[in-house]
């Protein structure tokens, strides 16, 4: 098994990725990187650091991209902008332009210096919320770009790529960390960890997926 660097935000998706990487490779081979890019809630970065520490990863790095806010605007970074998201609508105003491309590039640069060639990111296009950089085509293209840019062979793993939120909860349960992820991670746009505010689009998606999975599990039992 090779070492791997997980792009880690402390949310449900990336924590599920982290747990999968840990289960498959053991903590000695799993590294995490978190980006501080001026998200609404500074707690997100602290929480990611805390989870990484709790899980005993080989190393954790926070990369500051403070300048991101100077060049783009969106509801995730602007506390004053209300979150607007209509299912089926075009890109929601929480979309951060170029985020996954920027993060993967920075993660790959950092990984290369540490002798790591495998990267993991928790993007999913199943519950597609209009984020173009969550699509498989983007991940594949970015992988090629990184290889060409740095003259080596990276492998980007996106294990949630085709999983719905319900399937993601099922994976967490399989990994024995459903309760941990439910209680510890932060996906809420209002910055409330665990089950969150219950009202924002992110909380609704997370809760609907959990409910669907628990219903299915109950039916099977
Ligand atoms: Zn919420």
Which keywords apply here?
221 residues, alpha/beta, Rossmann fold, five-stranded parallel sheet, 8 helices, binds zinc ion
How would you characterize the overall build of this protein?
Strands 3-2-1-4-5 form a five-stranded parallel beta sheet, with helices on both faces. Helix content is 44%, strand content 10%. The mean pLDDT is 91. The longest helix has 20 residues. Helix 1 packs parallel to helix 6. Helix 2 links the parallel strand 2 and strand 3. The termini are far apart. It is built from eight helices and five strands, in the order E-H-E-H-E-H-H-E-H-E-H-H-H. It is an alpha/beta fold and 221 residues long. The protein has a single domain, classed as HUPs (Rossmann fold, 3-Layer(aba) Sandwich). It is globular and about 50 Å long. The chain binds zinc ion (ZN). Zinc ion binds next to helix 8.
């Amino acid at each position: 098994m090779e070492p791997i660097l997980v792009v880690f935000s402390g949310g449900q998706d990336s924590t599920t990725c982290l747990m999968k990487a840990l289960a498959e490779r053991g903590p000695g081979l799993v590294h995490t990187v978190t980006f501080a890019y001026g998200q609404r809630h500074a707690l997100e970065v602290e929480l990611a650091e805390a989870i990484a520490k709790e899980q005993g990863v080989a190393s954790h790095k926070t990369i500051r991209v403070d300048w991101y806010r100077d060049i783009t605007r969106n509801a995730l970074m602007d506390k004053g902008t209300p979150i607007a998201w209509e299912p089926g609508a075009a890109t929601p105003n929480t979309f951060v332009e170029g985020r996954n491309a920027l993060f993967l590039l920075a993660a790959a640069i950092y990984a290369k210096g540490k002798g790591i060639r495998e990267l993991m990111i928790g993007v999913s296009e199943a519950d597609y919320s209009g984020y173009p950089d969550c699509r498989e085509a983007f991940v594949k293209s970015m992988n090629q770009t990184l290889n060409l840019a740095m003259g080596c062979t990276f492998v980007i793993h996106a294990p949630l790529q085709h999983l719905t939120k319900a399937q993601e909860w099922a994976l967490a349960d399989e990994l024995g960390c459903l309760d941990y992820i439910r209680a510890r991670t932060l996906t809420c746009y209002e910055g409330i960890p665990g089950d969150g505010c219950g009202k924002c689009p992110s909380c609704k998606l997370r809760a609907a997926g959990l409910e669907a999975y628990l219903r299915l599990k109950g039916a099977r039992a």
